[in-house]
Amino acid sequence: MIPTNRPATPATSAASGKTRRVVILNLTVLLGLFGYGNYLLESPWLALTLITLGLLLGGELAARTATLQRYRDFARISNDLLWETDDRGHFTDLNGILAQIFKLRVGQRWRTLFLVAPDLAVLKAAITACRPFRNLELSLQLSARQPSHWVRINGIPLLDESGKLRGYRGTALDITPHWQAHEALRTHATRLEREVVAASRELRLANQELADRERHLRILVNTAPVGIAELDIEGHCRYMNPVGCVLTDCPEQAAWGRHFFDFVHLDSRDYVKFAWDINRASSQVHWIEFRLRGSGLWVSAYWAHLFEAVQQPVSGSVLIFIDVTETRRKDQQLRLQAHYDSLTNLPNRVLFRERLEQSLRRAKRERQNVALLWIDLDAFKAINDRLGHAAGDELLQQVALRLRNRLRESDTVARMGGDEFAAILPAVTEWASATRVAEALIARLAEPFLLTGGVISVSASIGLALYPRHSEDAEALAQSAEAAMVAAKRAGKNQVAIWQPPGI
Question: Which of 260, 284, 294, 342 is deepest in the core (most CB within 10 A)?
Answer without folding.
Answer: 260
